[in-house]
Amino acid sequence: xxxxxxxxxxxxxxxxxxxxxxxxxxxxxxxxxxxxxxxxxxxxxxxxxxxxxxxxxxxxxxxxxxxxxxxxxxxxxxxxxxxxxxxxxxxxxxxxxxxxxxxxxxxxxxxxxxxxxxxxxxxxxxxxxxxxxxxxxxxxxxxxxxxxxxxxxxxxxxxxxxxxxxxxxxxxxxxxxxxxxxxxxxxxxxxxxxxxxxxxxxxxxx
Length: 206
Fold this sequence. Notes:
Number of strands: 13
Strand content: over 45%
Structural class: mainly beta
Order of helices and strands: EEHHEEEEEEEEEEE
Largest sheet: 9 strands, antiparallel
Shape: elongated
């Protein structure tokens, strides 16, 4: 069961659209919402990873909140997700686990060749974006698989992402992304290592 309470508003500073071509603040828009989830472990990632252990702790309710805001060619996204109770169970290594998963992220985007009629930043022309995220209690647990004991259900503790994209055709986009990840420390169940990734994506919509 999910429930949402939200509010949306927008404006153009009392100025006609044709006079906003060089504005960095208008038109503007806000979209803020808070969601209640009866079980955070019903999400695809957590359910796939932790379904073996879910009978030990049952339903863990959660809360999610987000803010999306546009100011002219800029897009700002803030999001926070967290469990409201602690899940306690024994993983397949015999380790006692207490976890209340939580994540937050902030993203900033900029649209080049922007005009006031652009409906969504990043959906046309050239754009860049920068994002940073952090997680808590998601270092993973040990599962006994057919190949032996394996670490599952983990995400980076910190992640930095930079993206640059270009719509080369009306429905075609090419984007280059760089990410830098920090894993959890060994004392928290991770490797303590860092990783860099470069990704090239091509998409065509019809």
